[in-house]
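My main concern about presentation is that the manuscript never shows what a single data entry looks like. In essence, backbone conformation is discretised, so a fold becomes a row of integers matching the chain in length. An entry of this sort, consisting of the sequence and the corresponding backbone structure tokens, reads as follows:
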Amino acid sequence: MRAKKLRWLWLLPLPVMWTACSTTGHLPPDERLYTGIRKIEVTDEDRSDAGDEAMREIEAALACPPNNAFFGSSQIRLPLPFGLWMYNAFVGKPGKFDRWMFKSFASAPVLLSSVNPELRTGIVRNLLREHGYFNGVASWEAVPHDRDSLKVKIHYRLTMNEPYTYDTIEYRRIQPRTDTLLKFPEEERLIRPGDPFNVIRLEDERRRIALRMRNSGYFYFRPGHIAYTADSTLSPRKVSLRVGLSQDVPPAALRPWKIGDIAVRLYGYASEPPTDSLRYGDLTLHFRDRLHIRPEAIARQFRFRPGDLYSQTRQAQTQAGLNHLAVFRYADMQYAPRSESARCDTLNVTVRAMYDLPLSGETEINFAANSNRRIGPGATFSLTKNNLFGRGESLGVSLNGTYEWLTGRSSGSLTDNYEYGATGTLVFPRVLLPDFFRRTYDFPSSTTFQLYAGRLNRADFFRILSFGGSAAYDFNPNPIRHHSFTPFRLSFNRLERTTARFDSIAGNNRALFRSLRNQFIPAVSYTYTLDNAPVRQERHTTWWQFSVTESGNLLSSAYALAGKGFGAPKNLLGNPFSQFLKLTSELRYHHVLNRNHNLVIRIAGGAIWSYGNSTVSPYSEQFYVGGANSIRAFAIRSIGPGRSLPDGDRRLDNLDHTGDIKLEGNLEYRFRLVGDLEGALFLDAGNVWLLRDEGGEGRSDGALAWRHFLNDVAVGAGAGIRYNFEVLVIRFDAGIALHVPYDTGKNGYFNKTRREGFGFHIAVGYPF
């Protein structure tokens, strides 16, 4: 019976093989199969930023992947059109198996008529005019296949010619107040004399003017109320522009409006309408049965009061605050005039909000295979209770665990690696500070309290227990700046068990042992982040982060008040506590060369200085380099500190490759290959160093010394391929070492031998 089934399996490819000679056998009458774009030929292309922006939109308008496209490319196809073969083999077949094969594997042919190149070239002509290329032209031609006239590629031809630019820009006078709003401040204008004519930028200027008007109370003012008059006949390739109001602007749009009564209507989990109401301050709250959230929590989110002029920005901040409560599934606002009188200048506000479910859960399961020949599963389960105390708070509990076993058992280890722990997080959607510090922030803020505990077992080295807690404040004074302040963070590490292998390493490196010993880490930290990507109009963006952390100073001050000297040993609950000062900074600059090419620069560094109770900082606070987001030619924690030699046993976890100072730089050139497939070339450099010469085997050359600083910097280069799914990026990077900081016995700067670095990384997202 089994042999008969196997014989039938040989017959399955026959329909495909029979139709493989032609993929056009079932085309509709007078149709042709589209096989992609042969070429987009551009004449007199404008190489400026404006021209590049126009070409980006033109290429997007012309893009249309054919059947079996290579990574979404419109020009390159895979050699075996399996989907088309299955379509031709099973289209119209009545059998159950035929229908299943057709539904599962067939791809309908992409027809030339559905691509509609005539319509696409018409869109391109409009795009050229919208970007100021009034003399630009576009055309297309169908190029038949050499052996099958029913298969065609499309050859597009474009001529851009020189773009038109603004000669003069005049803002027409309207009336005293609105005229002032339209004209000033001039530095905010998005169009200026000399800029290329661009319809998209004109629409952006309309929206900017409308936003400025609406933030000043003009609720009914819309971008469409701004009219442009352009004259291109006064000067060659120049446009004289006048900006003013359109003729059909209603009177209500030309007068400011104030906020009147504010009502909040709260709907149940299944959209049940409210049946009761109460008055709280300036708000009237409508609810069903009972309020699930305290009135003050809702009132705190409002950025306007009755009598204030309407502001679109304040409205957006209020909606963001209501959504930040994590209580409502949605919250929208509706405005209506208080009366039908022609002199009415007051708008009543109604907020409609629907409660979200109070509980949510998430489970994540993964499986890891590491370079140290350990494999195993991991899982994380989290549960969140929203609106815990009725003010939008959320309580989250997370449980995590991993288990890894050694394949082959060649090491003789009888115990596998494992890790498990629990974390509890309580988030308040506001900053909880003493009364004299309290203020209302224009953007969402939060206070987070966290407790955690976990155990980590590394079979070949140690088992460590850790637990602790923290309190953190996060707030944004504006869209590009973020502050995070942690006034309290206390963690405790207890080394429960060590192996003979670890003891032998620690015997030669006492600093490593002291960094992992039982100790408290009482820390205070502050982090500032600047990110202009959300608001910057230019194509180049900057991200910068600075962080400072100190540990043990408050406790040490208390001991000093008790008369204990600075250098005397000090304990907390019978265990020493760490004392250190840590500074870190990272800068990223993203420079757009053109629509398909980008240059990204990253510089990162940090230093930690330990003093008082110990001259060695805790292991968890030390720096390391290497890995998928660092120097990609080297594995994580595989180089440093300084000129120290790497461990000869590749199966070790490289425990002691950490340092007190870190300097790292990355240069990455990103470019589009075909379709959604991107490529990258990169150059990475960096290392970690010790502030003090600790001595000991393997770390005697770890201290920072300026006389051989450049030789201490590890350098690697490589290439990568990334597939961009829009929502996420899958990344494959391969790096090779060019220079290693230690002596390899090879002369010259490029001292890599066969033993040194080659790294291959698979990751999600860009490295930086």
About this structure: Confidence is low (pLDDT under 50) at residues 1-12, 14-20, 649-653. DSSP finds 15 helices and 29 strands in the chain. The CA atoms of residues 479 and 523 lie 28 Å apart.
